[in-house]
Amino acid sequence: MSAAAGEIRVLLRLLRGIRRGGAHRDRLQDFYGPQADRYDAFRARLLHGRERLLELMDFAPGQVVVDLGAGTGWNLAQLGPLALRLARADLVDLCPALLGVARRRFDGWSNARVVEHDAGTYDPGIGVDRVVFSYSLTMMPEWRAALRNAVRMLKPGGLLGVVDFHPPRGRIAAAFWRRWFAHDGVRIDAEHPAALHAELTPLHFTEACGAVPWLPLRAPYYLFVGRKSGD
Predict the structure, then answer these.
(1) Beta bridge partners of 92
(2) Main-chain phi, psi angles of 178, to 5 degrees
(3) What is the three-class DSSP state of 168?
(4) pLDDT confidence of 132, banded at 50, 70, 90?
């Protein structure tokens, strides 16, 4: 499939939106399955702030990293040679189609684990140095459970980073973006940053806007990095 045809296929799926009803895993598979192979190329122009988040997370050799809502494993791939020097990287998601891309991407890697599991109940079995939610917290109906679980698995002093869409200030603008994102199953919520600040010691927090492909719009997003307090 050509790049142009793949782009059109993704756009058509976004216009159709995510189906209502049924299990969350099945809704994700139905929505992302037809666009999985073009997911990264299209989202590179929509999901802003991801590179900056990875810079702020202070990844280092020997760390255990968990990416909750990892999708295709894009975040791990961006770490370059450092990714191979991590002690372990768990890529956790509920969507089989996106995880299929991740499995192909990291085939043969001894330190990468691609896991189909709910973020709210996933147990890595060991203490974790870094946890990432990259445009995934808004896709999780039980986001509070996922956040609590992320904090639980972190070692004292570990970092949690989030980049995601966020409702802007102003009632009319916030209502527009909530409706816009809800069409594709994205639940933007002003309570996300407040909950993050309550659970962790904030190290970085910014709000910004980024371009939307093919449209004269700029979508609001935020970037947060926090540290788990020591016991």
Answers:
(1) 68, 115
(2) -60, -45
(3) coil
(4) very high
- Cβ burial of 57 (10 Å; 0-12, 13-18, 19+) is buried
**Integer Rg of the chain from CA:** 17
E strand or H helix at 51:
helix 50-56
As to burial, measured by CB atoms within 10 angstroms (0-12 exposed, 13-18 middle, 19+ buried), residue 20 is: exposed
Q: How would you label 135-169 residue by residue, b for 16+ Cβ within 10 Å and e otherwise?
A: bbbbbbeebeebbebbbebbbeebbbbbbbbbbbe
pLDDT tens-place string over residues 52-96:
999 999 999 999 999 999 999 999 999 999 999 999 999 999 999
CATH homologous superfamily of domain 3-227?
Answer: Vaccinia Virus protein VP39 (3.40.50.150)
